[in-house]
């Protein structure tokens, strides 16, 4: 692409694409080629203020649209999203790098949330207790909060915004999204589809930027709630800053997910699942299963795990035969390679080294191949840090009890899973493990969108997660009404039962 043809990514304000006046721009690179595919602006304070002002003004009317009207817009959005899976996936692959099948899968997971939001007519119902005392009724209203905001990570540029705005706007809120500046184009296209579906201008706005824009969102007095998905370091900052500014916040953060394999596990399926969970999306997902805990004689499977990992194909995401695409950036690749080197220095055994991975025809890509370590100890950097690359750490233990204790000693609690044929072992695991999302013979236990995302401990701040019922609670204010109605005076025999306060006020 010649310099002149590189598109500037617009902001999305009040239902229109708007070119930013910012002086600060960043190149968006194709991770498989390093080609500059777009330029993204870091929005100015005035632009962020404008986005919020649009949303605040539109809230006055949007909050009063009927549930059925909001449902119809979501139904239309669902249809448009389904019709645009292919172009959305191509944009994801071009800017993020993940393989096309992975990108299509991501759009499908986003679509699930929009389908769930189509049920808003039954999701936003209150409760009523009649006659709790002489003629008194108590009922709840679930009312929208006002302007919500979402700040998303690079690794799922379509799915993560879908974890935020569809339920928020379906509940009657308006919204400002700050997608990742590393791969913003698919997020913007998603927002355009939502607007095409009939969202009034100003309901859903997009600003781009880095930490400064995220801070403006946390501090802005007219934003009532902030949803974040990304690293623990950034999420902790956003949770504190937004909370101090009086906002509601939910932050889904870093992870170190473990998968226990018991000797009675179905070997072939277990190994296939392990490889997909560790190396799929090049390991760049907060639900990647990066630590494999082999119990008892399953340690004999290590040579086969390594052989099958070696056979995985590394290549650009546009190659449908590729299993592992590039990492998102040069910096990400350098960080992953630095962590692999630290594992060797700290005494882990490197059975498969994905560094210096060369892909013919994509010599400039940020590729790291599947990497496998054994002899991993809890104090090593490859264990304490989220590698966010295609690296599997194998830990060998003797019993299920030891494996559960090992996982519970890790501060993170995003997801964990077990492969076994024993119902007893699976049930013991699900009850004793201190992790919010559990998979039983399922390697990446992200629940379907009509259940809530329930990561726990260091992986989550805020008690309400995205999706499911918790998302409706997060994006609404519960108002409880206690009501009594007196009979009109003429029915009460014409006597005036004025309260003394009422008489004085009159």
Automatic annotation (TrEMBL):
| PROSITE patterns to which the protein is assigned, alphabetical | ALDEHYDE_DEHYDR_CYS
Supply the EC number(s).
1.2.1.27
**UniProt keyword terms in alphabetical order:** NAD, Oxidoreductase
**Biological processes per GO annotation:** L-valine catabolic process; thymine catabolic process
Q: Name one GO molecular function term.
A: methylmalonate-semialdehyde dehydrogenase (acylating, NAD) activity
Q: Does the keyword Transit peptide apply?
A: no
Q: Aldehyde dehydrogenase domain spans which residues?
A: 19-481
Could you say which protein family the record assigns here?
Belongs to the aldehyde dehydrogenase family.
Q: What is this protein called?
A: methylmalonate-semialdehyde dehydrogenase (CoA acylating)
This chain's source organism reads Herbaspirillum seropedicae (strain SmR1)
């Amino acid at each position: 692409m010649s310099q002149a043809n590189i598109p500037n990514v617009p902001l999305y304000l009040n239902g229109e694409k708007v070119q930013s006046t910012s002086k600060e721009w960043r190149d968006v690179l194709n991770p498989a080629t390093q080609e500059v595919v777009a330029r993204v602006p870091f929005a100015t304070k005035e632009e962020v203020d404008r986005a919020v002002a649009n949303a605040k003004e539109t809230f006055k009317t949007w909050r009063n649209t009927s549930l059925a009207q909001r449902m119809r817009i979501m139904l239309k959005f669902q249809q448009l999203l389904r019709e645009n899976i292919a172009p959305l996936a191509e944009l994801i692959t071009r800017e993020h790098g993940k393989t096309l099948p992975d990108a299509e899968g991501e759009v499908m997971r986003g679509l699930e949330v929009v389908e769930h939001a189509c049920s808003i007519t039954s999701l936003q119902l209150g409760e009523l207790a009649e006659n709790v005392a002489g003629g008194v009724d108590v009922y709840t209203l679930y009312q929208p909060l006002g302007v919500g905001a979402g700040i998303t990570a690079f690794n799922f540029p379509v799915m993560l915004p879908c974890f935020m705005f569809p339920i928020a706007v379906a509940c009657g809120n308006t919204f400002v999204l700050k997608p990742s500046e590393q791969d913003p184009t698919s997020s913007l296209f998603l927002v355009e589809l939502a607007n095409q579906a009939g969202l009034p201008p100003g309901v859903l706005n997009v600003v781009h930027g880095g930490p400064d824009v995220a801070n403006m969102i946390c501090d802005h007095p007219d934003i009532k709630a902030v949803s974040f998905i990304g690293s623990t370091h950034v999420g902790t900052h956003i949770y504190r800053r937004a909370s101090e500014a009086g906002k509601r916040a939910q932050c889904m953060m870093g992870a170190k997910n473990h998968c226990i394999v018991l000797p009675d596990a179905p070997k072939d399926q277990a190994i296939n699942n392990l490889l997909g969970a560790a190396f799929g999306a090049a390991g760049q997902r907060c639900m990647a299963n990066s630590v494999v805990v082999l119990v008892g004689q399953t340690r004999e499977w290590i040579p086969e795990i390594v052989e099958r990992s070696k056979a995985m194909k590394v290549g650009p995401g546009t190659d449908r035969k590729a299993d592992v695409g590039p990492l998102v950036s040069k910096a990400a690749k350098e960080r992953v390679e630095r962590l692999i080197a630290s594992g060797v220095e700290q005494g882990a055994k490197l059975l498969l080294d994905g560094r210096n991975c060369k892909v013919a025809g994509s010599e400039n890509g940020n590729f790291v191949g599947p990497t496998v370590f054994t002899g991993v100890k809890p104090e090593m950097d490859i264990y304490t840090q989220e590698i966010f690359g295609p690296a599997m750490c194998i830990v060998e233990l003797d019993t299920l009890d030891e494996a559960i204790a090992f996982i519970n000693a890790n501060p993170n609690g995003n997801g964990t899973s077990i492969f076994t044929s024993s119902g007893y072992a699976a049930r013991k695991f699900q009850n004793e493990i201190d992790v919010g999302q559990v998979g039983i013979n399922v390697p990446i236990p992200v629940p379907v969108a009509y259940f809530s995302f329930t990561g726990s401990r260091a992986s989550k701040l805020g008690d309400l997660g995205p999706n499911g019922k918790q998302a409706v609670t997060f994006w609404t204010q519960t108002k409880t009404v206690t009501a009594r109605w007196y009979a009109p005076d003429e029915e009460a025999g014409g006597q005036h039962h004025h309260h003394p306060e009422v008489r004085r006020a009159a």
